[in-house]
Input
Amino acid sequence: MSETIQEAAVAVEKKSEPLFSKKNKKLITNPLDIDNPITVQVLGICSALAVTTQLKPAFIMALSLLVVTACSNVAISMMRNSIPSRIRIIVQLAVVSLWVTLVNELLKAYVYDVSKQLAVFVGLIITNCIVMGRLEAFAMSNKPGPSFLDGLGNGLGYGLILMAVAFFRELLGSGALFGFKVFEAVGFHYKGNGLMLLPAGACVVVGVLIWLQRSFNGYRESH
Amino acid sequence: MRQSNLYIVIYASVLTIVCGGLLALASEGLKERQQFNIAQEQKKNILSTVITLEDGQDISALYAKDVNEFVVDFQGNVVDGIKPQEVNLAAEYKKSPQDRLLPVYEFKNASDPNKVDYVVLPIHGFGLWNEIWGFVALESDMNTIRGVNFDHKGETPGLGARIASDAAVQGRYRGKSIYDGDKLVSVTMMKGEGNDYSGKPHEVDGMSGATLTGKGVNNMMRDYLFCYENYLKKKKANS
Output
C-alpha cells in the first residue's frame, strides 16, 4: 500500500506531463506484477474464486471490472474537487453502482447466457475492494488521465490473474479451454479433476500463482 | 462551503437525480433487446425438452415451424385472446389451481400438422430457497415423459442448482410415466443418489445433498400436472 501512496503523491506533483510518461506507464505495469490487486494486495478474492471455473465467464468478469474501475476512476477524479469529504464514500459508491448497473444491463442485452452465469457477481463488483480502493487511494487526489490509467492497470492486473486461474481450472477441471475440449482433440481421454471445479481448487491455484510470482520477483512482505 | 450541510444535501440530491436518470435511460433503451433474449431463452428451453439443440440453430425459425402455442384454463378449454407470453407464471402460481391460466405448447407432426407429437407444459413451484420452474414434455400418449427442463432462482450451486445445470438429473425423467392406470400420480424424485429406479415408472433417482430441492420439484410437478389433468384427458379422448 505504501508504494501506492507514493505513486499518488508523485502524480500530483507534476502538473503538466504527457499521459504516457514513464511514471504514468508504471500506473499500468505496476498492478500487473509488483502491485497486483489479487496476488499482492489480496483484494477482490471472492469473485476470483467464484467465477473462474471457465475462461469465458472469467473473461467477461475481468472485462466488466476493467470498465468499471477505469470509468469510476475517471468520473470520481473529475468530481474530486467538488465532492464534500463527509459524504465522499457514499458518492464513490453511487458512481460505482451506476457503472456496475450499466454494465449489467449491457450484459443482459448482448451476452445473455454469460450474464446468467455471472448472475450476482457482476452486481457484487460494487463491493469489490479493488474499485473502492483505487478511488480512495488514487482518483480522489489525481487528474482524470492518470486515474484512467490507474483504473486500467488495476483492471488488467485483476483480469490477468483471473484468466490465469480460469485457464488452469478449466483445463484441469473439465479438460477444455473456452469450451473447446483440448484433451479429446489430441486423442487423450481426460476425466477431469473435480477439485478444480470447486472454490477450493481456485484457492490452490491462486496460492501457487502467488508463490511463483514471489519467487520470481523476490517480493517480501514488509513487517 | 464544501462542508456546509446545505451543500452536502444539494450535492447528494443532484447526484441521485443524475444517476437515476442515466439508469432509467439505459434500462428503457435496452429493454427491447433484453426481452427478446428472455423470450429466446424460453423458446430454447421449450424446444430442448423435445429435441437436442445444436449451436447456431435458428431457434425462432424452428419454434415457429414446430410449435403451436395457446392458453387453457383448469377445465382444459382454450382461452381466447391471450398469448402464452402474456401469462406470468410466477403470478399464476400464487392463485388457486382452478383460477390459473395454463399455457400449452404443442409440437406439430412434421407430415400431418393436425397431429400432435408432443405437448410441453410449463410448471412453476418453490424449491429450498426460492422459486423454481421448468417445462415437462409428454409424448402423444399424454403419459410418457419425453423430457424436462428445470431452472431456478437461488438454489444452492452444486447441490439443488443441479436441477438446472446437470443434464443428467433432467435426463432421469425421460421415459417415466405420470399415470398409474387412470390415476395421475406424477413422477417423484427420491431421497439419496445412485440408486437404480429403471424398473419404476413413477420414481427417479435423487440428488445427494439436495433432498429439499427435490421435494420442491416433486411438489411443483404434482401441483401443475393436476392443473393440466382436464386438458390431458380431453387430448387423450380426441386422439
Remarks:
- The longest helix of chain B spans residues 5-50.
- The mean pLDDT of chain B is 88.
- Chain B has one domain: 50-238.
